[in-house]
Design a protein that fits this description.
This protein is mainly alpha-helical. It has helices at 2-19, 25-35, 39-52, 57-69, 73-76.
């Protein structure tokens, strides 16, 4: 179940990456951190971006994926 949820989130992130033309600086830094495996930092940066732009779908998705990677499955649900 956890692997399936993670796979779905990864696929959604990839889809959004191709459909979104320009990322914010915070999203770029968060994405770099996520890809480097620094999920705590990525989460923090995604959450900062959400605070500045609550409709930033990619950041919501990234925050949820970061929480899953951190093993915080219940906290990931709202994202």
């Amino acid at each position: 179940m956890k692997k399936t949820l993670l796979l779905i989130l990864c696929l959604l992130m990839a889809t959004m990456a191709f459909s979104q033309k320009k990322f914010s600086e915070l999203q770029n830094r968060a994405n770099d951190s996520y890809q480097e495996g620094d999920y705590g930092r990525a989460l923090n940066l995604f959450q900062q971006d959400i605070a500045q732009n609550p409709k930033a779908g990619y950041s919501h998705l990234g925050a949820g994926a970061s929480l899953i990677e951190l093993g915080q499955y219940e906290d990931a649900v709202p994202y």
